[in-house]
Design a protein that fits this description.
By secondary structure, the protein is an alpha+beta fold. Helix content is 53%, strand content 6%. It folds into 2 domains: 3-83, Glutaredoxin; 91-209 and 228-236, Glutathione S-transferase Yfyf (Class Pi), Chain A, domain 2 (Up-down Bundle). The chain has helices at 15-25, 41-48, 73-83, 91-115, 128-156, 169-184, 186-192, 197-208, 210-216; strands at residues 3-6, 29-31, 62-65, 68-71. Strands 2-1-3-4 form a 4-stranded mixed beta sheet, covered by helices on one side. The radius of gyration is 18 Å and the shape is globular.
Length: 238
C-alpha cells in the first residue's frame, strides 16, 4: 500500500512523528502537501473541506490509506504501528504504546505553549511576559514530570525500548521530543539531560538507525525553524 501523508509542507510539527515511523519502516509514502501545484497544499485543503470524505479530519496531520482517512497523530500511529511492525502484536501492548503516545501528545502542547501561552494567533512579542512565566514553570515542574516519567518507563522495560523488546513508534517519537527540546532550549536541555540518561541513550540509538540516519541527512527532513512546535528564543533559554 502507498500511504499519503497530509501535513504542512514547511514545518516538522506533529506530522514529523508520522514521518519518522514511515521512514523507519521504509514505507511507500508521499508527503502530499510538498508536491507542486494543485497536487500539493490544494489537495490537502480539499480533503480538509470534507469533499468526497465521509469522515473529514479537523486538521492535519492525517493519513490516507486506501479507503481510510485517519486524523490525529496518535490515532494515525495506532493505525500504522502494527502495519509497519512498529507496535506490539498483542492488544495490551498496542494499548500501552497508544497510551504513551497520547502522553507525548500532551507534552507537545505544553512545549508549544512555552512560546505561545496566551494565543496561537498572537506573535511571541505580544505575549513575552506570559511566555517567560510559562517557560519558567515548564522547566521547573512539567519537564521533570514528563521526561522523568518516560525515563522510568524505559528503565522498567530494561532500558533499550519503551514498549516490548523491539523498536516502536513511541521510541521514534521520544527521539523527536529530545531533538526538539535541544533545538528550542539548548542550554536548559544540556543541563537537564544528566537526569534522563536512558532517554538520551534511546535518542542516540534511534539517530544511528540506518533509515533514520539517512532520513535526517536527506532533504525530506524539514529543518527546525521559528514556525512550529519547537521555536528558539534566546531570552527563554536561560
Amino acid at each position: 500500500m502507498r500511504y499519503e501523508l497530509y501535513y504542512w509542507p514547511t514545518i516538522q510539527g506533529r506530522g514529523e512523528f508520522v514521518r519518522l515511523a514511515l521512514e523507519e519502516a521504509g514505507a511507500d509514502y508521499v508527503d502530499v502537501a510538498r508536491r507542486p501545484g494543485q497536487r500539493g497544499v490544494p489537495a490537502m485543503t480539499k480533503l480538509l473541506a470534507g469533499k468526497r470524505v465521509a469522515h473529514p479530519p479537523y486538521a492535519p496531520p492525517f493519513l490516507k490509506a486506501g479507503k481510510f482517512v485517519i486524523a490525529q497523530t496518535a490515532n494515525v500511529l495506532l493505525f500504522l504501528g502494527p502495519r509497519l511492525k512498529l507496535a506490539p502484536r498483542d492488544e495490551a501492548g498496542r494499548l500501552w504504546a497508544h497510551q504513551l503516545q497520547l502522553t507525548i501528545s500532551d507534552l507537545v502542547v505544553e512545549i508549544h505553549d512555552t512560546h505561545h501561552p496566551v494565543s496561537g494567533w498572537l506573535y511571541f512579542e505580544e505575549q513575552r511576559p506570559a511566555a517567560h512565566r510559562r517557560t519558567k514553570d515548564f522547566w521547573r515542574y512539567r519537564v521533570p514530570k514528563y521526561l522523568g516519567y518516560f525515563e522510568r518507563v524505559l528503565k522498567s522495560n530494561g532500558g533499550q525500548y519503551s514498549v516490548g523488546r523491539r523498536l516502536s513508534y513511541v521510541d521514534l517519537s521520544l527521539f523527536q521530543i529530545v531533538e526538539g527540546l535541544r533545538y528550542a532550549f539548548p542550554k536548559r536541555m544540556k543541563r537537564f539531560e544528566k537526569k534522563i540518561p536512558e532517554l538520551v541513550a534511546l535518542h542516540d540509538r534511534v539517530a544511528k538507525r540506518p533509515r533514520i540516519k539517512a532520513y535526517l541527512a536527506s532533504e525530506r527532513r524539514i529543518a527546525f525553524s521559528q514556525w512550529g512546535i519547537y521555536r528558539y528564543f534566546k531570552e527563554l533559554d536561560v
